[in-house]
Amino acid sequence: MSLVTGSSRGIGRAIALELARRGSAVAVNHPGDDGARALEVLEEARRSGAEALEVPFDVSDPEAARRGVRAVEARWGRLDVLVNNAGTCTFHDVGSLGVEEWDRTFAVNARGPFLLAREAAAIMRLHRWGRIINVTSISGLEPTSPLQVAYCASKAAANMLTRSLALILAPQGITVNAVLPGTVPTEMNRAELADPAVRAGVEERTPLGRLGTCEEVAAAVGHLASPAAAWITGALWVVDGGFVA
Q: Which of 1, 132, 224, 234 has the least C-beta neighbours within 10 A?
């Protein structure tokens, strides 16, 4: 039984469908304004033979996060896999970056994974088994753009949260890992990648010579969610075509 935040589109959508194909029931989350796309994900997951549930809520809201996780438990009696995928990014240099944008970026990218992990772990502890997977970014390892100050800082926080939770939750049989994508075309970065020079620059710096796909990130998440990854915890899996290497 899986919950994937931010799964009505992009990488989250690919993750939800990957887990469904692997046989997991999947809860599809969005902030509440993407119901039509969420319905498409639900229908595709069901066509693969999986049960699917829509759970719209804002991941940065403590009470909403609690209700969302409890809705999954109420439906299926447990929660085995939590994927904290929901994220946001604002493109401003430090001089024009507002406090509100900074706070919102951290609320979604760092506080959200903490809130969801806290609620999910309470259920996972009862069964002494669970997988928590945070989709962060290589931007949490090194600054990737002078226009992504808040994003880079928030993803670094999410990476450290991953490692800290891995140590805390290991005695309860819960693994905690992160997948760190490089540049993958999604709606979040569509405007930036529409500039041929920007896209070419990223591709040229990437040893494999191309951008990634949502499905390639989802495959890494699928493995970490599987029984085959039982001895992996506290890992920051870079999926970036060799960019940071």
A: 234
CATH number, domain with residue 224:
3.40.50.720
Catalytic residue among 7, 8, 24, 155: 155
Catalytic status, residue 137: yes
Q: Is 60 part of the annotated catalytic residue set?
A: no
CA dist list (Å): 238 to 91, 138, 190, 235: 23, 7, 22, 9
Q: Which one is catalytic: 137, 139, 145, 154?
A: 137
Phi, psi for 52 (deg, rounded to 5)? -145, 145
The one-letter amino acid code at 69 reads V
- The answer to whether residue 244 sits within a structural domain is no
Domain of 28 in residue numbering reads as 2-239
| Cα four-point dihedral sign 88, 191, 199, 214 | positive
pLDDT digits (tens, 9 = 90+) for 83-99: 999 999 887 778 778 89
> What is the layout of strands, in order, in the sheet containing 52-54?
52-54, 26-28, 2-4, 81-84, 130-135, 174-181, 236-239
pLDDT, one tens digit per residue, over 212-225 is 999 999 999 999 99
Active site residue 96: no
Annotated catalytic residue, options 24, 139, 151, 154: 151
Overall pTM surpassing 0.85 (yes/no): yes
